[in-house]
Predict the structure.
Amino acid sequence: MRKVLSVLVENEAGVLARISGMFSRRGYNIESITVGASEFPGLSRMIIVTDIHDVEQIQKQLHKLINTIKVTNLSDLDYVERDLALIKVSTKINRGEIIEISNLFRCKVIDVADDSLVIEAVGGSEKINALIQILQNYGIKEVARSGTIAISRGVSKNKAK
């Protein structure tokens, strides 16, 4: 089962290595990991996507690491997530069809060359996976994909009590 963890850490050298090493030592796979600045100066936010079953154990282990400030299992909350993919597709045939497909998926063509297009896709991982699967029929030359980013949703008036 897919789990999404938000980990607030000190922005220091070696933190990513310690966290990925902790997963590795326990034999857990990281599906994706994305790191960037947070709303707090000097702190970064890591979004880690994994398929581990014992997420509580991982949360405890993450809390033990010196540079970890806060760990949140977003999978237990109402949250939104997005991925980014840049997909270079051969346009030797059917350039118009490829552009139409990118429009259907609400993507942008961000680069045009004689023999290829680069499409920017933003959305959930299922959407991007579906787009890639369709574009494979046209000849994908290259895919560059970010990891998942995610954030909890705000509390609506209906849920606050």
